[in-house]
Amino acid sequence: xxxxxxxxxxxxxxxxxxxxxxxxxxxxxxxxxxxxxxxxxxxxxxxxxxxxxxxxxxxxxxxxxxxxxxxxxxxxxxxxxxxxxxxxxxxxxxxxxxxxxxxxxxxxxxxxxxxxxxxxxxxxxxxxxxxxxxxxxxxxxxxxxxxxxxxxxxxxxxxxxxxxxxxxxx
Length: 170
Ligand code: S3P
Description:
Helix 6 crosses helix 7 (126-144). The model has no long low-confidence stretch (mean pLDDT 95). By secondary structure, the protein is α/β, with parallel strands linked by helices. The relative contact order is 0.20. The chain has a five-stranded parallel beta sheet. The protein starts with a strand and ends with a helix. The chain has eight helices and five strands. It is globular. Shikimate-3-phosphate (S3P) binds at residues 10, 33, 44, 78-80, 118-120. Shikimate-3-phosphate binds at residues 10, 33, 44, 78-80, 118-120.
């Protein structure tokens, strides 16, 4: 038994899959953005606006450091979380990391309707959004690829992920 971390860019489907896997495995699940919002009493977009990104990244670090390493949790991590404060290493120490890989074009299609709640992509034109996703992915990809399990889009179903997790736990 171990903590499980779902990793990937905005729009990869981390939260939806975390919920589904957790109910099938009878694990608890958490979403780092939601936990930070509860704790701060502010939406992520407001935290960025009022306190700035560096403050938000420090909250992400604290959230991960405060996790109980022995609790069996599925955690949906914010898209940038593993890429700051060397948290990818921390996640790999704390449990099973699973990267939900998607191409920039797929991510673009998936996030373009829901940019307002995401401060890093709010108010971008379609062209700016695709460019932002491509350039940010270029920087983040090598970090995401340090995950223990890398899942392509065809395998991003709860059933397949559970099978991969069970193989890893064996
Ligand atoms: C971010 C992703 C968001 C949220 C914040 C910053 C990022 O989470 O943490 O807006 O840096 O990619 P989701 O990946 O859940 O959208």
